Structures are given as structure tokens and as C-alpha cells.
Amino acid sequence: MFDLNDFDETLPGPWEWDVKRLATSFEIAGRLRQFPPAQRAELVSTVAAARLAMGDFARAGFLDTWYGHLDVGLLLQAKEAAASVLEVVVQRSAYTHHGQRVVQGQLLMQAASDIFLGWSSTVTGRHYYWRQLRDMKAGVDIRFARRYADQNERDLDRHRQAIADGELEARPDL
Fold first, then answer.
1. Cα 152–chain centre separation
2. pLDDT tens, 1-30?
3. Contact 45, 142 (CB under 8 A)
4. What are phi and psi of 132, to 5 degrees?
5. What are the CA-CA distances from residue 74 to residues 8, 68, 71, 132, 134 (Å)?
6. What is the 3-state secondary structure (H, E, C) of the chain?
7. pLDDT digits over 53-99, tens only?
8. What is the mean pLDDT of residues 26-53?
9. How many whole angstroms separate alpha carbon 170 and alpha carbon 172?
10. What's the gap between Cα 156 and its chain centre?
11. Cα separations (Å) of 168 from 67, 89, 157, 158, 171?
12. Are 15 and 7 in contact (CB under 8 A)?
């Protein structure tokens, strides 16, 4: 079954943003692992491959769609959930717990949600959510992912420079 599964910024807005972010994440991960450009393009292309699969799934019956992937094991992923960056341009979330916002967003957007999906807080008040980690595919332009990853690197360089210049305080103990 095809469903989106990256819900860090779950808040109503254009769905294309999440797909573009996913492709960009593949490009950034490939750069961090020092993959050559051709291999990074292949990674990002896997995101685009789902466009074809979605057409097939749209014509398939429920059970064919449900069994359209094969699970070979269980891997849970826990992620910290912070305020959505989209809140400054769309609206504030109705949920005060950011993990709950992510989980509720997934429940709204997915045809069949992960049975391991959940959210919680630490004793220090940090918000988390967890989910089953699976491979995922969607569609996006490789050039966009590269440009967005380039911007990500420029932003990181500027962030580091601001710390070095004393414009921004960095605390490694947090």
C-alpha cells in the first residue's frame, strides 16, 4: 500500500511539500554518505517511482493494495517532535503535544495507519512519536531535490558561521 510516512511537519498544507522534502532528504543523505552523483540520482529516482505504482494501486482492489508490499521485519523508529515549521505560514496546530500532532496527522492522511504508531513525552518534557519504519516511495523532480539539498548545505554553513561569529549561541549540552 502506498502512503506517506514522513510526518515531522504534519499540518494542513500542500502535500507536494512533503514529497519534495522526502526526495531532498534522500539527496542530503546521499551527500552525507559521499555517494557519487549518479547513485544519489538513483536514490531520488526511487521517490519518483511511486507515481507509477500509485496508478496501479488506484485501480487495484483493497486486498491487492494492502498486500502490495512485503514486510521482512519490524524496525521501530522514535523521533523527537518539535513545533512544525509550517505554523509560521499556515496556522498553529490544534495539538499542544507535537508528537500527538504528528500521530494525528498520520491517522488523517493514511489509508491504513501503522499499528505501532504512538506518542509520548520524556520526564524533561520533550515530545516524541514512534512508528514502524518501512521503505517508502513517492514522486518528485530530482533537480528540485538537488537544489533544495544545496540550499540546506548553504543554510548549515551560515548557521555554523553565525555560531563562530558569536551571532548565535550553541550549547552542546542540550
1. 15
2. 344 555 555 666 665 676 677 778 888 888
3. yes
4. -80, 135
5. 21, 17, 8, 7, 8
6. CCCCCCCCCCCCCCHHHHHHHHHHHHHHHHHHCCCCHHHHHHHHHHHHCHHHHHHHHHHCCHHHHHCCCCCCCCCEEEEECCCCHHHHCCCCCCCCCHHHHHHHHHHHHCCCCCCCCEEEECCCCCEEEEEECCCCCCCCCHHHHHHHHHHHHHHHHHHHHHHHCCCCCCCCCC
7. 655 666 777 666 666 653 445 556 778 888 888 888 888 888 999 99
8. 78
9. 6
10. 19
11. 50, 24, 13, 11, 10
12. no
Contact 137, 46 (CB under 8 A): yes
| Phi, psi of 121, rounded to the nearest 5 degrees | -125, 155
Residue-level length of the chain: 174
Instruction: Indicate the pTM of the whole model.
Output: 0.41
Q: How far is CA 151 from the centre of its chain?
A: 17
